[in-house]
Amino acid sequence: MTSNDYLSAIESATRRELAQLCECEAETLPASLSLEQAQKFFGIENPKTLNVWKCTGRHNLVWIKRGRRFEVATESAIAHRMASVQLPQTAA
User: Fold this and answer.
1) pTM recorded for the entire structure
2) Contact 70, 35 (CB under 8 A)
3) How far apart, in whole angstroms, are the C-alpha atoms of residue 13 and residue 88?
4) Strand order in 69-73's β-sheet?
5) Are the beta carbons of 72 and 64 closer than 8 angstroms?
6) Surface-to-core class of residue 81, CB atoms within 10 Å of its CB (0-12 exposed, 13-18 middle, 19+ buried)
């Protein structure tokens, strides 16, 4: 398995996980995640953590304002998760 195949498989699994969280199909993910959905997706225990990330600009997430609420852009959340993927070491 090449590194591109590995990353593609991880991204597919990430999209399926997110679809299950949002109760939709992986092909029809919403454009943004509520703070509660993002909190579950990132595995964050403290609900105030995402607000700290937003205010400090930590983790380079794209924020969308909907009325009085902020949401995290779905593609931004996926990119954030993919940035932390470690490629497996190959034996030489």
Assistant:
1) 0.85
2) yes
3) 17
4) 32-33, 69-73, 63-66
5) yes
6) middle
